[in-house]
What does this fold into?
Amino acid sequence: MTSVAPQPTPRRLDAFALASEPGNERLAISRVAETASSAGISAGRLERLKTAVAEATMNAIEHGNKNHAEIPVDVEVIARGDEITVAISDQGGQDAGPADQATEAEEPDLALKLDGVQSPRGWGLFLIRNMVDAMEVTTEGQRHTVWLTMRTSAPEGADHDEQV
It folds into this structure.
């Protein structure tokens, strides 16, 4: 009989809220970086995670909460085994804009953008997806959450992850 190894229990490492004001993504980056560093993430992977956290937080502030400072962006950092997950939530729900179509977003094409065929915007979700090991987007009522998952060390054969 084959047995399945039990999954590690998730541990909340940090949770905090930020006012939905441009620039507060820097506060999210700083706090997540401190927490992820203490969890043992490698330097190169930490830089990638910081970029993804910045983009997701800016989307939550601008598109989700429409820059209404009184509506917080919630950030939670969770560890499970060798993975760190950062959940960034806003109150945009179905009206959150581009982040709602995260899995269906048009792939940015620089030539099409320069020709004016594609909007000059729209790099954020592309960047986020390519910075982390996994990205998931969920919406429950008005709560819209982007889940960013990063292993603490690069998988075998992925030496490029250590270069920034």
Remarks:
- The chain has a mean pLDDT of 85.
- The longest strand covers residues 11-19.
- The chain has one domain: 11-152.
- The domain at 11-152 is CATH 3.30.565.10 (Heat Shock Protein 90).
